[in-house]
Design goal:
Number of helices: 12
CATH class of the largest domain: Alpha Beta
CATH topology of the largest domain: FAD/NAD(P)-binding domain
Oligomer: single chain
Strand content: 15-25%
């Protein structure tokens, strides 16, 4: 019997996986929570990647879409969605295979609990049940193989010390921006006027710091946990855009900007709504826009700052609740599947361009026929590239592409 494949997420990795399945002749359904493909990519559409088209278009995508962009230009998220991902969804190979506005809420083995039939063929031969949130209400679907390509952008980390929410953070969640600010709009200066607290040190935070520092009416307070950050510098970096972020971040940290203050070795202790200082030359803010009093733990001791906006860019991780009822062995340090996490942590190459190629055995979980692919598979590690995800799809599908019937592909 030809297996039924469920791909969760219609981002770059999910679409590449769907194409791989159709190439192999396997029936596949893609479940996408958003109203269209690449919903999360469009959320950071104003941001330019530091990787070029050649690293963002898979060979399979190019074979199906000869008009796919080429060259060394680095696309924005919007360009990636408009020029690559959306055209892919219109290909005949994917017509009728993508269910939009359909979120997979949970996955189980039909009729089995998590602890039953461990390393047993019964579990491998039992189909998955997917609980779906659809425009028409809850529904279920079954699949024999599940490829979780949901990514991480919908699951931001919190900004408190040790990775938990800071006191006051949950109550002020509506005042905290956890996605990259768009400073390219006509109203950006008004939107981000005042004092902005930025938390985080990765490439997303560096991009936000670069952009916010250009706004004339914005004062930036940047909080970085590492006392001596190197901003992810790579010697003789082959990606100019990435090196530019490192250089700008170092200049800001060196107090080379009049409207930016960088606090290294610092974490957030608490957030508290604060009334505007009086007297004030401007009208008193409404309660919804009142300043926030932030208590910092700095190397020099506690410090309080009053801010108008908070941008938390402390990283993103995949949603583990999706596979809570499945037998997935997660690394205690990274949250990634154990075998892949061990391979990545054991790699000597720190640069995302130097990630090791892993075989299908490394991508397997104790749960037969369930694979986590793409950014989610890297857990808390920040070295993922789209190219790495495309290679994962190849590992999971290519060795079995000749199988048409009688034998289950992706088998253990």
């Amino acid at each position: 019997m030809t297996p039924r494949i469920a791909v969760i997420g219609a981002g770059p990795i999910g679409l590449d996986a769907a194409l791989a399945c159709t190439d192999a002749g396997w029936p596949v359904t893609v479940y996408e929570a958003g109203p269209s493909a690449a919903t999360h990519v469009r959320a950071w559409g104003h941001v330019r990647l530091f990787t070029p088209w050649e690293l963002n278009v898979s060979p399979r995508m190019r074979a199906h879409l000869p008009t796919a962009p080429t060259g060394n230009a680095c696309p924005t998220g919007t360009e990636l969605a408009d020029r690559l991902l959306h055209p892919l969804t219109e290909l005949p190979a994917l017509q009728g295979r993508i269910r939009y506005a359909t979120r997979v809420a949970a996955i189980s083995r039909t009729g089995l609990l998590k602890h039953e039939h461990i390393a047993d063929i019964t579990r491998a031969e039992t189909p998955f049940t997917l609980l779906l949130d659809t425009p028409d209400g809850e529904d279920t679907a079954q699949a024999d193989i599940v490829l979780d390509c949901t990514g991480t952008y919908a699951n931001p980390n919190t900004l408190g010390d040790g990775g938990i929410p800071a006191p006051g953070e949950r109550a002020l969640a509506h005042r905290i921006t956890r996605t990259l600010p768009n400073t390219t709009t006509d109203r950006a200066s008004d939107r981000w006027a005042g004092t902005v607290l930025l938390v985080g040190a990765g490439k997303s935070a560096q991009t936000a710091a670069r952009d916010l520092a250009t706004l004339p009416d914005t004062h930036l307070i940047w909080v970085v946990r590492d006392a001596h950050p190197n901003w992810g510098a790579i010697q003789d970096d082959p990606l100019p855009g990435r090196q530019e972020l490192v250089d700008i971040s170092q200049k800001l940290a060196d107090s080379a900007h009049a409207r930016a203050t960088v606090h290294t070795g610092t974490h957030i202790q608490s957030l508290t709504p604060s009334p505007a200082p009086t007297p004030t030359p401007t009208p008193t803010p409404t309660p919804g826009n009142a300043p926030i009093l932030v208590r910092l733990a700095t190397p020099q001791g506690p410090q309080e700052v009053r801010v108008d906006h908070i941008v938390s860019l402390t990283g993103y991780t995949g949603d583990p609740t999706l596979h809570r009822q499945l037998q997935v062995h997660e690394c205690y340090a990274t949250g990634a599947p154990m075998n892949l996490s061990a391979a990545l942590l054991g790699s000597s190459g720190a640069d995302c361009l130097a990630q090791p190629a892993v075989g299908v055995d490394v991508l397997r979980n104790p749960e037969p026929h369930f694979y986590i692919l793409g950014a989610k598979s890297y857990g808390r590690l920040n070295t993922f590239l789209l190219r790495s995800g495309y290679e994962q799809v190849n590992e999971v599908t290519s060795p079995y592409a000749h199988t048409r019937s009688g034998h289950t592909p992706l088998s253990r």
